[in-house]
Amino acid sequence: MRKSSWIVIHSLWSKYDWCLNVMAAGRCTITKDQVVYNVTEPTILDAADVLPELPALLQGSLRAFGLKKFMKVRIETSAKVEEPVELVTAHES
Question: What pTM was computed for the model?
Answer without folding.
Answer: 0.70
